[in-house]
Please model this.
Amino acid sequence: MSRASLTVHGVPVEDLLEALHETSTLLTDSTLRFGGLLGGWSNLNLLLTSDRRRMVLKLPARTTARSKEGYGVLMQRHLDLSRTGLSPRPLETGWIDAPVEVPYILLQFVEGTVYPAPSAIPISALSALRRAIDSLNTAKCDSATALSRPSDLLDLHIDAVSSAADRSGVSSNTIALLHELLPLADAVRSHCEHLPWSGGLIHGDLSESNIVFREGNAVLLDLESLSTGHRLYDVAHLTVQNAVEVIDCPPTLVQEGETEVVSRFVPLALVAVISWSIERLADMDSGLIETALVNETTYRSIRRYVSDKIALLRMTLSGNPSIAQ
Model:
């Protein structure tokens, strides 16, 4: 899709930026230019340039009714964590009237390197990521979701995907995937009773696509899933993203003796990525995802991803020796 033809929330992107310019108190003296769609999952991420800076404009990926708080919580999370360089600096949040009110948040664009997979991250960058995960776990952010036990995280994902699957228009194939997941999630719930947990902060959705490496540091993007929990859950979540048969934890990310703990978090992390992906399929079935993020190739790719991850979860729960311990 060309930049000129991109439509966002029912209006051409050029009209959207004009409406943003009229709404924003930050951009009154700037000329805005659209630099491209950076993708997104729960949000649309648009690269913008002005006379003075490059920014990321986040908008909801769903076309459903908006929460009155908009991006207020996300703004506060970035305010808290950007002070120590853990996340991009937030610039502004508000609502665009174009033609219906749409919440937005503007964030600093972080220049740096994003690696295509955990296996592609060099040792020096993994060391920086480990420091970031450790720093995040000791940081303070009152707006993070408070989860007192691992099963709270599991329930959060299962409740969300089950609710999405109940909407009208969801395909029988998507519902079938959910029915494959639910008994496996029940097994993981029993497994959760034996997992460590803590009151420190975790990213909750850590993947290679939301980590930018720059100047010897790791900057964490997309804080929508920020919660309390055990820092090694983030390591497990990162390692399961692209795993098909064998789950290897990069040794640089853990201390001696922690690899086994990461492997114990793998089933919970797999339930999270599977649930999130089925929820996206349900949203696409129901026509609730912005057209800029929807196409048949993406839909088929997500379905294959879910099937692969369900197979991996079954193998993990069965104690298959090919799972790295």
Observations:
- The helical segments are 13-23, 72-82, 123-138, 150-165, 172-192, 231-240, 259-285, 296-317.
- Confidence is low (pLDDT under 50) at residues 320-325.
